[in-house]
Amino acid sequence: MTHADTADSHTDSHTGSHAGSHAEPHSFWTKYVWSQDHKVIAIQYSLTAIAVGLVALVLSNLMRLQLGFPGAVSFIDPASYYQYVTMHGMIMVIYLLTALFLGGFGNYLIPLMVGARDMVFPYLNMLSYWVYLLAVVVLMAGFFVPGGPTGAGWTLYPPQAILPGTPGTEWGIVLMLTSLVIFIVAATMGGLNYVTTVLQARARGMTLLRMPLTVWGIFVASILALLAFPALFVSGVMMLFDKLLGTSFFMPAIVSMGQTLEHSGGSPVLFQHLFWFFGHPEVYIVALPAFGIISDLISTHARKNIFGYRMMVWAIVAIGGLSFVVWAHHMYVSGMNPYFGYFFATTTLIIAVPTAIKVYNWILTLWRGDIHLTVPMLFAIAFISTFVIGGLTGLFLGNVSVDIPLSDTYFVVAHFHMVMGVSPILAIFGGIYHWYPKVTGRMLDETLGKVHFWVTFLGTYAIYFPMHYLGFLGMPRRYYAYEGYEFIPASAQTLNAFITVAALIVGVCQLVFLFNLAWSAFRGKPAGANPWGATTLEWQTPDTPPKHGNWGAELPVVHRWAYDYSVPGAERDFIPQNVPQSVSPSEAPDADPAAWEGHA
Amino acid sequence: MNLLNALGTRPWLPEPAPPLRTGAVVPAATIGLRVLLAVIAVLFGLFVLALLVRAQLPDWQALAGVPDAALANTAPLWVNTALLALSSVALQAASSASRRGRTAATRLALAGAGLFALAFLAGQGWVWQQFVARGHFVASHPAASFFYLLTGLHGLHLAGGLIAWGRVTIRAWRATPDSPDPGVALCARYWHFLLVVWLVLFALLTSPPGTIATLAEWCGVR
C-alpha cells in the first residue's frame, strides 16, 4: 500500500470515519468537561466569553459612573479608572468578541454548516478551549495581585505601559502580556482547526461557493487571525523582555521619576507598528463573522435569496486582504512620512468599496422581501444601520487631515464603539437568538427578546450619538475628570450624565438576556428541527440538538446553494441544501412541512 | 488555480449532474501542518522585520563583521547547523523508510534524528553559555537581545517538534510494517522548515552591518 493510499483512507470524509470523528464519550467528564465534541466546546467557549464579557460590561458602567457623576463612587480613583478602561477594552475585543465569534460560533457552526461530523482535529480543539480558559484566568488574576491590573490602555503603548506612574506596572502588565501570548496559542490551535475543517471536511456537493456566508465570514476571519495574531505575539514577547529582562526593544533612553533608566535606544513606534499590524485585521476578525451571520439572518428571515452571493464572498475576501495594508491609519498622530499617510488614507478609503457592496446587497436582499420581524431579524437590521453609521465616521477618521484634530477625542470612541463594539455584539445577539433553538432545542422567549432588543438598540444610540458631538467639542478620551478645561462647556457634563444613565440602563438590560438564556433552556417553547424554515445544513440534522457525530448514520449530500428561498414553483418558500435538484421539494424525505411551524 | 476557479462558479444555477465529490484529496493533517508553517513563517518574518527596524537605530552593534564582534567566531554555529541538517536528513530517511515499510530502518533513522536535534539544542545552549561568559547578556545590547530571543524561540519550536517526534517514535516501535505512519513525513517536513528558518536566522544574525543596512532598505524600513 502506498503512502497516498493510506492518507486517503485516513481522511475519507464520506464513509463516516474521517479524521475528525472520534468515539462517542460516555462519562460525564469526557462528555461535558474534557469534551472533544465541537458543539460542547462551542458552548464552553461561549459561556466563558459571555462571563468575562460581563466583567467588562460592569467595568464600562463603572467608568461611565465616574464620567457622568464625577466622584460619586468613592472607590473609583484615577488609577482604577485607567485599569477599568484597559481591561474593558482588551476583554471586549479579544476575550469576548474574538473568542465568541471564532471559538463559539465558529466551533458550533462550521462542522454543522459544511456537513462534517466534527472538527478535523478534535483533540486540538479541546486543547484550544482549555488554553483559552487559562488565558482568561491569567488575565483575571490581574484584579487580585498587588497594584492591580494594568492601566496602560488597551493599546499598551510603551514606554508608559511598563513604567511607574501607569497603574499595574508591578504585576498587571506582566499578566496582561502573558495572558495575550497564551490566548494567541489558543487562537492558533482553534484557527488551524477552522481553516482545515472548511478546506477538508465539507460534505459531498458542498463546493466552496455553496457554503453559507456565515462559514465564509468565519473562515476568512480565521485566516486573518492566524496571520495577524503573530504580530501581537511578537510585540507582547518583546515587551515582556523589556519589562522583565531589561532589554531595549521598545524602550528609549528615559528619565523616570528623576532617575535615568537602564534602557536606551529602543523604538516605541516599532511597537505601535507591530500592535496595529495585528490591531487592524483584528477589527475584521470580529467584523467578517458578523457580516456572514447577518447575511444569513437577513436572507432567512426575509425569505429571499441573498442578493449578489458571489459578490458577498469576494467582498469578504477583498476586505480580508485589504485589512493588512491599512494599519498605520491608527498612527497618524505618531508622526510619519506624509507619503505614508497618503498611502494609508487611500487604502483605508478603498476598504469602503467592498464594505459598501455588502451593505447594498443586504438592503437589496431586504427589498420586497417577505420580512419577518423576528428577534434575530431585528438585531440583523439594527446591525446594518449601526454598521453604516460607524463605517461613515470611519471615512472621516481615515483622512489624515480630519483625523488629526479628532484624534484622541470622544469622536473616535463613538466611531469604534459603533463599528466594532455595538455592531458585532448586535450580530452576536442576532446569532444567538437565531441558533439557540438548534443548540438547546427550545426557543428563546420572544417578548423578553424584544425588550432586550429595543433597550439595547435604542440605548446604544443614546450612548454613542452624543459622543460624536462631545468629540467635536474637543473632549479628550481617556481622561478621569474634566474639571478646569475652559473649552469644554459646562453643558457637556449634562450630556455625560445622560450617556451614563443610558449606559446603566443598557447594562442592566443584559440581565434580561441572561435570564432568557437560562430560563428558556428549560422552559422555552420546544423549537422543532427547523423553526425558521432555513435552508442550511445545520437545520437538517436528524436530531435537535444534534447528537454526537451530528448526522446519524449517513452524512448529508449537498445539491444546491444555501439561499433557495421563495423559489418560483416550489411548494414551500425554502428548499434545504440537501434536497436534490430533480426531486421536487415536497417529495424530499427529510423536508416535512409539518415540522416547520413558523410560516404555514 | 483551484480556488480562483471555485470563486468563479455560479452556485445559484441548478446543477443537473449529481454533485461532484468535494472531499479531501490531501490529508487533513498535511493541510493543518501547512497552515501552521505559514503561521510560524509570519511569526519569524515579523521578528526579522523588527530586528531590521531596530538595527537602524544608532545604538545597534552588529554581532559580526566588526572588530570584537560577539559572533566573530561562527564555528560553533556551523557545527550546530550541521547537527540540525543531519537531524533533518535523518527524518527524511525515516520518512522514506517508513513509506517503504522498512520498520528497522525507520526506527534507526527516527532515533538518529532525535539525537541530532537534542545535540543541536545542547549546542545552542553552549553558544548561549559562551555569550554569557564573554559578557553579552540579554540586556547588554539590542543585537544580543535579538540573538537570545530568536535562537530561544527557534529552539522552543524545535522542542515542540520533539513532542511530535516522540509520539511518532513511540508509534514506530509499536507499528507493524504494513501500516506506515504518515506522521513521520509530517515531522520531516516540519524539521526541514525549521532548518530553513534557522539558516535565515543564522545568516541574519551573523550579517555585517552593511548587509543589514541593505536588507533594511529592501524592506523599506531604512
From TrEMBL, chain A:
Location(s), subcellular: Cell membrane; Membrane
Membrane topology: Multi-pass membrane protein
E.C. designation(s): 7.1.1.9
Cited Pfam families: COX1 (PF00115)
Main localization (coarse): membrane
Catalytic reactions on record: 4 Fe(II)-[cytochrome c] + O2 + 8 H(+)(in) = 4 Fe(III)-[cytochrome c] + 2 H2O + 4 H(+)(out)
GO molecular function: oxidoreductase activity
Segments of this protein annotated with the region Disordered: 1-22, 576-600
PROSITE patterns (alphabetical): COX1, COX1_CUB
Positions of the Cytochrome oxidase subunit I profile domain: 28-559
Metabolic or biological pathway: Energy metabolism; oxidative phosphorylation
InterPro entries per record: Cyt_c_oxase-like_su1_dom, Cyt_c_oxase-like_su1_sf, Cyt_C_Oxase_1, Cyt_c_Oxase_su1_BS, Cyt_c_oxidase_su1_bac
Keywords recorded for this protein, A-Z: Cell membrane, Copper, Electron transport, Heme, Iron, Membrane, Metal-binding, Oxidoreductase, Respiratory chain, Translocase, Transmembrane, Transmembrane helix, Transport
Biased composition (Low complexity): 591-600
Record field: transmembrane: 40-62, 82-110, 130-151, 171-192, 213-241, 274-295, 307-327, 339-363, 375-398, 410-433, 453-475, 495-519
Similarity comment: Belongs to the heme-copper respiratory oxidase family.
NCBIfam families xrefs: CtaD_CoxA
Function according to Swiss-Prot or TrEMBL: Cytochrome c oxidase is the component of the respiratory chain that catalyzes the reduction of oxygen to water. Subunits 1-3 form the functional core of the enzyme complex. CO I is the catalytic subunit of the enzyme. Electrons originating in cytochrome c are transferred via the copper A center of subunit 2 and heme A of subunit 1 to the bimetallic center formed by heme A3 and copper B.
Record-given protein name: Cytochrome c oxidase subunit 1
UniProtKB/TrEMBL annotation, chain B:
Family membership noted in the UniProt record: Belongs to the cytochrome c oxidase subunit 3 family.
Pfam families on file: COX3 (PF00510)
Cited InterPro entries: Cyt_c/ubiquinol_Oxase_su3, Cyt_c_oxidase-like_su3, Cyt_c_oxidase_su3-like_sf, Cyt_c_oxidase_su3_a-hlx
Main localization category: membrane
Domain Heme-copper oxidase subunit III family profile span(s) in chain numbering: 1-210
Topology in the lipid bilayer: Multi-pass membrane protein
Transmembrane segments: 35-57, 77-96, 108-126, 146-165, 186-205
Entry keyword set: Membrane, Transmembrane, Transmembrane helix
The protein's name: Cytochrome C oxidase subunit III
Subcellular location: Cell membrane; Membrane
Superkingdom of origin organism: Bacteria
